[in-house]
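Working notes for the structural subgroup meeting. M.R. asked for a predicted model of this chain before we commit to crystallization trials. I am recording the input and output together here so anyone reviewing the notebook later can reproduce the run.

Input as submitted:
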Amino acid sequence: MYLLNEGTNAFFARMSLVELAERSIDVQYYIWRADLVGKLLFNAMLKAADRGVRVRILLDDISTSTEVEGMLYAMDQHENIEVRLYNPFASRTMRFVDYVLDGFRINRRMHNKSFSADEQMTIVGGRNIGNEYFSADKNSNFSDLDVLSAGPIVNEVGVQFDIYWNSKVVFPVKVFSHNNASADELNKLKKELVTFAAERKGSSYDLDVQDSEVYRRINNVPGAKKARLFHGEMQVIYDDPAKGLGRSETEVVYLKTLLRPHLEKVIDSFELISPYFVPGDRGTEYLTNLVKKGVKVRALTNSLSSTDGILAQSGYARQRLNLLRGGVELYEIKSDIKTDASRSLRRGAKAKSALHTKTYIFDRKEIFIGSFNFDPRSANINSEVGVVYSVPEMAELIGSSVFDEAVKEHAYKVELVDDGGGERIVWVETKDGKEIRYTKDPETSAWRRFNESVYSILPIESQL
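Returned structure, recorded in token form:
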């Protein structure tokens, strides 16, 4: 197992899997953008198919833009490539019609993320496919985490992929009535992507990737650090795809049901990292009850300044006071944390950062890494996948690096104070050895705070 915490490492690892594949490539994602990262990977996958590799692409249909859709139709013309979509919209051009007429179905999405090659290696974690997930966006990037794994776990991920691939909620794009792609479109796309990739050789991002640890190790660049590898037991857990048909957790298996036993047996600590943290009344009660039992509970999520989802942030803000009263330690990530993109001297502007990692650490002995957010949408609506690693060394490394070190510099500690005027929340930042305290969400405008406060009173928590 190898941790992919840097965006450039995560991108090069995926490119390497595609370029080295000899038999098969299976990819499963919620989002695939037609940007630099998305097009470079599509180009590499077409080349793999040309050399005889079987390529299966399974995407959720929620974010398939017109450009991506056209590319998928063209790629599906290749004899070695098949594309399928999860829970597709019936109307391809007027999607709002489906939202109105078939909202219950359309609301349920496949949030799973996996990338496997030759049944030998797999990547599972929190990243979608797009510039912002791989430190390739000049303006805004996500801090995220994947794990590159080998061994029996690859077969487990493959079983999960096949179950979704063959489920009743997934459809091949070749059956779509408006799909008129032909071999001509495929050949045209190949030429366009080859040109696109050639024009990006030597670009700032290409040079950033060549500076990545994975690139330097694979290419034996002098001075490359020795890889930190982990070994131990792993278990893939995921929702039954029938969750997308509205089946309840009493009818089919939900990921949250499989994750719950790991949480119920904690003794000393439970640490969660979730960009969208919406515990609700039940989750808040559960976490505060853990504290009453002597368990140290710590949570890292986005701040109002860093989040890309104010709706989800409003659900968290609604419970923040009760969480603090119950003894839960809260940390909110700053919007200026340094990713490999913001560190690059080749960048013209400093990239804003947001948290996108979904990780849960149990007693620093086990750790879950995957697509599951601590919110109602992941728990009850969308399908998710992740891996529980029974690897204390990994759990300790991530737990200590985040909650014992990184939060001191890169996050606000949220505290509850009562200075005689009643309870109030403050955000504490340590800067240059000095403590700075804020009485409002730091680095936010009055308008942004107003929007959050309005959203927090809307009866939409079950959808967040």
